[in-house]
UniProtKB/TrEMBL annotation:
Name the UniProt record assigns to this protein: Extracellular solute-binding protein
Gene3D superfamilies: Periplasmic binding protein-like II
SUPFAM superfamilies in the cross-refs: Periplasmic binding protein-like II
Superkingdom classification of source: Bacteria
PROSITE patterns: PROKAR_LIPOPROTEIN
């Protein structure tokens, strides 16, 4: 993410400092007896990945007699903020879920904190199971830029953003499913006129910046994305696409499509406002899908962002093996299990987007729609990654900037200038 995008965690978020305490305080955390696989991830138990990986743990222990998986659930923020420090210690886990992109996995690979998985990816056939667009975030060069070089991570799922909508609320107010941006805008105007804030949002986390990035993407093309994400050309934050994104976002705030209070809300608050039936629309990632299948008590549906060939998306977050892992072979075996047909099919039927499932094995209707839409995007080269990826620390810059747009303390032009300054400071010199 997100991302960097923050992953949905159903349980309460633990204070970031506890990550260091649990890591450095375990006397057995550095075990290298081949009997324990220390695993960290931040997927909620009702998410598709949480369900699939729980089953993978059972499968792993069944096929590795005498070996136990020591799973430690962390929050996205815990791992995001402290991973470099933890992985540079003697208490790194054996296997960890980590955010993909230049500013995260790319940065750690450049710092020598991640294991080169190239040989394992070839030997175990992971390279053959991942499509080129999904594989992009697995490979990093010596400069930490994604897309080519060595394998430093393996995603066993994919993800993309889409519009979730409450069919019951749309029906109550006589609104049809929008097929164009004009129809979506008209629908939001109707909700506002009825006293309903249409868009679930979280300005203190990734949702707000993803709305703005999507608006910019609707006016962009692949060369624009490549320049921004992979430095294949100059990025001008005052160009037509970025300007449209920032100005439209600010205009939507004025029109009441977003609530002013959303400036202080995180992604969890945004999700809850949708699952509670308060907000009729949420634009966010496929990672919510499994949870919504469980939590939504109303009729709901999805559609791709209208009038745009591009949307946010990529291969999912990565399984990475820290360079300090004491049980690397066990870690490789676990990754292999998550790539198996059994786990891939479970992930797909639980509301995830698998990368190596049997299409005929996906029987849930909503899941089939989710996967079909992803396949359409992937086939049409429509995945445009995430706005915070290009440079380290950009996530926080985007959060701060979009919060100011929501509160009105910053104008679009100033917001874009702030992004330009931070981007130019962190991006490689052309």
């Amino acid at each position: 993410m997100l991302t960097a995008r923050r992953r949905v965690v159903a349980t309460a978020v633990v204070l970031t400092g506890s990550l260091l305490m649990t890591s450095c305080g375990n006397s057995d955390s550095g075990s290298s007896d081949g009997k324990t696989l220390r695993l960290w991830h931040y997927e909620g138990p009702t998410s598709a990945m949480g369900i699939a990986w729980k089953e993978a743990i059972k499968e792993f222990e069944a096929t590795h007699p005498g070996v136990k998986v020591k799973f430690e659930e962390k929050s996205f923020d815990q791992i995001q903020k402290t991973a470099p420090m933890v992985l540079n210690s003697s208490d790194a886990p054996d296997l960890m879920e980590y955010n993909k992109g230049n500013a995260t996995a790319g940065l750690l690979s450049k710092q020598g904190l991640l294991t080169d998985l190239t040989q394992e990816a070839t030997k175990r056939g992971w390279d053959k199971k991942l499509s080129p667009s999904v594989r992009t975030t697995s490979l990093y060069g010596s400069d930490g830029v994604m897309g080519s070089g060595k394998w430093f991570g393996v995603p066993n799922y994919a993800e993309y953003t889409l519009v979730y909508y409450n069919k019951d609320l749309f029906k109550r107010y006589g609104i049809a499913e929008p097929k164009t941006l004009a129809e979506l805008t008209a629908a939001m105007d109707t909700f506002v006129a009825k006293g309903v804030t249409p868009l679930a949002n979280g300005g203190a986390a990734y949702p707000a910046q993803q709305y703005l990035y999507q608006l910019a993407l609707s006016k962009a093309d692949r060369s624009w994305v490549n320049a921004y994400q992979q430095y294949k050309g100059r990025t001008d934050f005052h160009d037509a696409a970025w300007t449209y994104g920032a100005e439209t976002f600010a205009d939507w705030v004025k029109k009441g499509y977003f609530s002013k209070s959303s400036s202080g809300q995180n992604e969890e608050a945004a999700g809850v406002s949708f699952t509670s039936g308060k907000a009729p629309i949420l634009f966010s990632g496929s990672w919510w899908y499994g949870r919504f299948k469980t939590d939504n008590k109303f009729d709901w549906g999805t559609f791709l962002w209208p009038d745009s060939k591009l949307t946010l998306g990529s291969g999912g977050n990565l399984w990475v093996v820290p360079q300090g892992s004491k049980n690397k072979d066990l870690a490789y075996d676990f990754i292999d299990i998550t790539m198996s047909k059994k786990i891939q099919n479970l992930l797909g039927n639980s509301g995830g987007v698998p990368v190596a499932a049997d299409a005929s094995a996906i029987t849930d209707p909503r899941s089939k729609t989710l996967i079909d839409d992803f396949n359409t995007l992937s086939k049409n080269d429509g995945l445009a990654f995430y706005p915070d990826w290009p440079v380290p620390g950009f996530y926080d810059v985007l959060v701060s900037g979009t919060q100011k747009l929501i509160t009105g303390s910053e104008k679009p032009d100033g917001y874009l200038s702030d992004l330009q300054e931070a981007y130019d400071k962190g991006a490689p010199k052309q």
